[in-house]
Amino acid sequence: MTGERAEGGNAGSEAAERSPYHREIRALAAAARAERLRFEPPADGEETERALSYVRGGVAPVTGVYLEAHTGGRNVRFSAAELDSLHRALNDWLTLYARCYGVRIDPDATVRTAAEILLQTHDAREVARLLTDAPPRR
Q1: Cβ proximity of 131 and 62 under 8 Å
Q2: Does pLDDT of 43 surpass 60?
């Protein structure tokens, strides 16, 4: 997350720099962490369904917050902590998505990259597939 991290300020002024999306970002990050802690591999034949639930419940909302904040003339500036939380949440959801297919990765995708892919493909599942290379091609 090169340029994205530079948008925030120092920790002392963090509260004053919070965006209107602060609570939503915090909730998305907490949900991703909780889901990652309780992950158990899906039963045979349920991989795709579970993976899609992580796309719908995580990848899409995280990417959506970023896009909503940066479109429609809003151009909201996220604090460094908010960007870090979005980054962590996205990568937690991508990790879970890939693990459904037996792929163990530690992604380092930026929310900006995910948003760019979503704008090009209009498909959150394609975002996850491209950023994780899962499911593996046979």
Answers
A1: no
A2: yes
Q: What angle do CA 114, 32, 4 make, to 5 degrees?
A: 40
What is the token pair recorded at 116? Answer: 């760019």
Q: Of 14-18, 23-27, 40-44, 58-62, which gets the smallest average pLDDT?
A: 14-18
- Residue 74 has φ and ψ, to the nearest 5°, of -75, -50
Q: 115: which 2 tokens?
A: 């948003």
Sign of the torsion formed by the C-alpha atoms of 68, 5, 113 and 36: negative
**Helices 60-70/22-37 angle, 10° precision:** 160
pLDDT at 4: 40
CA dist 107 and 32 (Å) reads 14
Distance of CA 114 to the CA centre of its chain: 8
Kindly indicate the confidence band of residue 15, based on its pLDDT and cuts at 50, 70 and 90. Answer: low
Residue count of the chain: 138
Separation of alpha carbons 87 and 92, rounded Å? 9
